[in-house]
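Researcher: Sequence recovery benchmark, item below. Answer with residues only.
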């Protein structure tokens, strides 16, 4: 009986502030997870364990409350975003699970969560989170949406070769289409969860765009800078909501459920189905276009002149050992995937090297400009080999071996 006690609403009202802070949280999930696991060198597994423990503590705190508290609620969402990202990255990078498989698995898992939730509670509405079981289902669904959104976003980048700055337009457009469908009479609960899932790839691509260097078409804030910027923005919005109570549902029973005419709901289901078909057609077309190297590399123009080999050991003496160890780990992982024939996994893993190298540029380049330029050239060769439109395992192995030798 205690589990089913009624409480004040444990979630915020769905306002414009809700969607703004949700996107901010998803961006932090992408950038902060990369910063901890790659830039700090903790690795995916260790970082995932740390944030799983933090998540358990945050959920215990959140679920012990009897009402919605903005700081606790949104801090829980931030940690869920980071943890969901890490779980997907472990499947892809550490276990070699193709992103298409991860996407399908998480989609099925989310459907199962919703089915059990609805069978037990007869509602999936965010306005109904007034008992402990409903809150448990809600947070489980949120965690799976973050993992699913990460897989969908990364799979889209892998299929299309789009830069994050271009890729962000797809989820943004789909969210706008979902909002239009809702305004035209689509089921409000279905519309909410569709938009909720799509904010994950939107925030992730936005984070990648802000973190990447200007040479790659990004803003150049780095993962640390992006994380700090968005965490400060989240804190500012949470402080505003705490003071104004603009998103508090004081009396959940007084909230009138938004319903639509059955005929319109059926018509909008057809609209959503057509939207899904059009999206699949767009991705299929984009995947067939040439995109062997990243748009950032293609935009750089003619290749820079070759940098003469440095004396043995100069790179090792020029840069901190911890940074070089992290780069070597990623290159070795990529080489292992190439040798195992896992081209998709190799492309995903080499992206970690690209991010880590870009994040370290401001620190490493001033230490030894010649060594940095030399190593940058070797990394570019490895990136181009692994991302080639027609994979050549021998050429990939040669480029990765050369990069490993350069890092010693």
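Model:
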């Amino acid at each position: 009986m205690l589990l089913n006690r009624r409480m004040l609403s444990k979630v915020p009202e769905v306002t414009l502030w809700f969607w703004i802070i949700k996107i901010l949280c998803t961006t932090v999930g992408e950038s902060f997870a990369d910063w901890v696991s790659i830039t700090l060198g903790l690795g995916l597994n260790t970082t995932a364990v740390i944030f799983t423990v933090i998540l358990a503590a945050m959920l215990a705190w959140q679920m012990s409350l009897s009402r919605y508290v903005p700081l606790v609620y949104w801090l829980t969402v931030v940690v869920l975003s980071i943890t969901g990202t890490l779980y997907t990255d472990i499947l892809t990078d550490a276990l070699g699970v193709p992103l298409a498989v991860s996407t399908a698995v998480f989609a099925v898992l989310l459907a199962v969560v919703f089915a059990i939730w609805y069978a037990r509670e007869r509602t999936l509405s965010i306005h109904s989170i007034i008992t402990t079981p409903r809150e448990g289902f809600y947070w489980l669904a949120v965690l799976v949406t973050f993992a699913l959104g990460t897989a969908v976003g990364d799979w889209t980048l892998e299929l299309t070769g789009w830069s994050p700055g271009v890729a962000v337009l797809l989820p943004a457009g789909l969210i706008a289409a979902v909002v239009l469908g809702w305004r035209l009479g689509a089921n409000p609960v279905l519309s909410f969860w569709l938009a909720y899932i799509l904010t994950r790839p939107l925030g992730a691509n936005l984070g990648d765009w802000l973190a990447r260097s200007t040479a790659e078409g990004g803003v150049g804030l780095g993962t640390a800078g992006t994380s700090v910027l968005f965490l400060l923005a989240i804190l500012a919005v949470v402080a505003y909501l705490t003071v104004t109570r603009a998103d508090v549902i004081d009396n959940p029973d007084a909230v009138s459920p938004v319903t639509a005419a059955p005929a319109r709901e059926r018509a909008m289901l057809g609209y959503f189905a057509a939207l899904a078909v059009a999206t699949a057609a767009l991705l299929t077309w984009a995947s067939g276009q040439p995109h062997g190297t990243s748009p950032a590399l293609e935009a750089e123009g003619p290749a820079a002149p070759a940098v003469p080999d440095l004396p043995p050991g100069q790179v090792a003496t020029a840069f901190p050992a911890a940074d070089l160890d992290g780069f070597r780990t990623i290159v070795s992982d990529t080489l292992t995937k190439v040798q195992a024939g896992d081209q998709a996994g190799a492309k995903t893993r080499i992206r970690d090297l690209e991010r880590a190298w870009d994040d370290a540029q401001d620190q490493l380049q001033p230490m030894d400009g010649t060594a940095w330029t030399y190593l940058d050239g070797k990394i570019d060769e490895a990136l181009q080999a692994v991302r080639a439109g027609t994979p050549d395992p021998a050429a990939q192995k040669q480029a990765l071996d050369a990069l490993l030798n350069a890092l010693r």
